Amino acid sequence: MKNSLRATLIAVLFAGTVGVLPCGPLTEVQACPGCKTANETDDLRPKAYMYSILFMLGMPATVFAGFGIAFYRLSRRAALEQQEQQEQIE
User: Is residue 79 part of a domain?
Assistant: First the structure.
């Protein structure tokens, strides 16, 4: 059982690292020729890509922070209600 679990874990780690790492030691990432030419000639397009990436990175953080704040307020409100009920009982 331990050997099969260990072999599976090694296989998953190997597959994950092979999928993440580049193909060669110093492989450069290349865009399609149309995007490459457009980025070299137009000054506004790289800024637009940058802002879109920042927006996509910021949205999940904003959504999760909103849910976290909402759950914090709900739990705090429930704790206050429970405290009030205990004070009324005493």
Answer: yes
Secondary structure letter of residue 3 according to DSSP? H
Report the interhelical angle of 33-41 vs 44-89 (nearest 10°): 100
Is 47 contained in some domain? yes
Q: What angle is formed at CA 51 by the lines to CA 45 and CA 53, rounded to 5 degrees?
A: 105
Over residues 15-43, the mean pLDDT reads 61
In a domain, 14, yes or no: no
Tell me the residue range of the domain where 61 lies.
27-89
Whole-number pLDDT of residue 40? 67
Compute the distance between CA of residue 20 and CA of residue 58 in angstroms, rounded to an integer. 23
Residue type, 53: I
Per residue in 44-82, pLDDT (tens digit) is: 777 777 788 888 889 999 999 999 999 999 999 999 999
Structural domain contains residue 7: no
